[in-house]
Amino acid sequence: MLKQSLVLFVSLVLLGCSSSNDEPPLPAVPVVRLLQLDPEAIVAERYFPARIEASRAANLSFQVPGKLVHIPVIKGDKIEEGSLIARLEQTDYQLLLESARVSFEKAERDLRRLQQLHQQNHVSQAQLDEARTAYDRAKVEKDRAGQNLIYTEIFAPYDAIIADRMMENFTQVSAGTPVVRIQDLSRLEVEIAVPEILLPEVEDPNGYTVTATLPSLPERPFDLSFKEYSTEPNPRSRTYRVTFEMDNPGDLRLLPGMSATVKVALKPNDVQRPILPLHALLGQGEQTQVFVYSPETETVSLRQVELGRLLADGIEIVSGIDKGEWVVAAGTGFLSEGMRVRSDRELKESR
């Protein structure tokens, strides 16, 4: 009797196991990442690392060679337009000018004398022409000698600061060798590197506002104005250099080479459209579609959308989706019309 009961129990257990294995498994619900569209919550701002540069800078040099005998400026000095920066030894150039002046005066006297003689038919036209040529040559030499004497001094072309001093007194200087470097800091330039995808936005200065902040003063933004952009990209980064300008605040010591952060903010008329990541889009022929999620049915449906501008963090949606709707932002690869899905946020909360 005990043996029969044991056999019956084992049979029931095996039957139960067999029935359990024969049931079809429940289909897995795909997990997706959802994004709710709220154009008003979109902050259309871009941040770029930037570098401050002088609005104007120049390496100043002599146009004639000579020995440097006077350089009254040092690095960091502020100089006014027209102030003396450096002077060469002038003795040799003064002597050359005096010699050229004597030669010119002699040629001038000879020309006058021959003109009088020519009027009296005592000299030929050829002799008069030769005297006039000598006069012209002497005048050129005198003017050149006078100009070379002027070239022995360097004066500030505009209000500036001495950024660098490359030469010391009593150094023999060649023509064209930089003596000092000056920078105009009354206005500053702020340069950023912009990727190709954002260059169309930068081309329209009326479509955005731009400010810069310093690491030491993050709470104080400085207004910038668009100046120019390069049409040739950096060969390595493939970015384009965009330059903005700003007034140098009098209460701060801003110098070229300092770092800054530039914020480019699109104006309100340009930020009312929602932005979707590119991987949320599906191509169907010439149409572009997205999966829209319904919280009531927990299912997705395909929706055709019209695209706008391509931006750094996605693409604008002109039409096809209403404010507040949920769109599948990631995980669209295995979805189909009407499929039930589960949000990855919901999955994380259940763990």
Short description:
The chain has 351 residues and is α+β, with helices and mostly antiparallel strands. Helices cover 25% and strands 40% of the residues.
Would you spell out the secondary-structure blueprint of this structure?
Layout: H1 2-21, E1 31-36, E2 45-61, E3 66-70, E4 78-79, E5 84-88, H2 91-119, H3 125-150, E6 153-155, E7 160-165, E8 172-173, E9 178-195, H4 199-202, E10 208-214, E11 217-223, E12 225-229, E13 239-247, E14 259-266, E15 275-276, E16 282-284, E17 287-294, E18 299-311, E19 314-319, E20 326-330, E21 342-343, H5 344-350
Helix pairs in contact: 2-3
Description:
The protein has 351 residues and is an alpha+beta fold. The protein has 3 domains: 31-42 and 272-350, conserved putative lor/sdh protein from methanococcus maripaludis s2 fold (Beta Barrel); 45-55 and 186-270, Elongation Factor Tu (Ef-tu), domain 3, CATH 2.40.30.170; 90-151, Helix hairpin bin (Helix Hairpins, Orthogonal Bundle), CATH 1.10.287.470. Helix content is 25%, strand content 40%. The protein is built from 5 helices and 21 strands. It has helices at 2-21, 91-119, 125-150, 199-202, 344-350; strands at 31-36, 45-61, 66-70, 78-79, 84-88, 153-155, 160-165, 172-173, 178-195, 208-214, 217-223, 225-229, 239-247, 259-266, 275-276, 282-284, 287-294, 299-311, 314-319, 326-330, 342-343. Strands 2, 4, 7, 9, 10, 11, 12, 13 and 14 form a 9-stranded antiparallel β-sheet that branches. Strands 1, 15, 16, 17, 18, 19, 20 and 21 form an 8-stranded mixed β-sheet that branches. Strand 16 and strand 17 form a beta hairpin. Helix 2 (91-119) packs antiparallel against helix 3 (125-150). The two termini are 51 Å apart. Mean pLDDT is 84; it is low at 1-10.
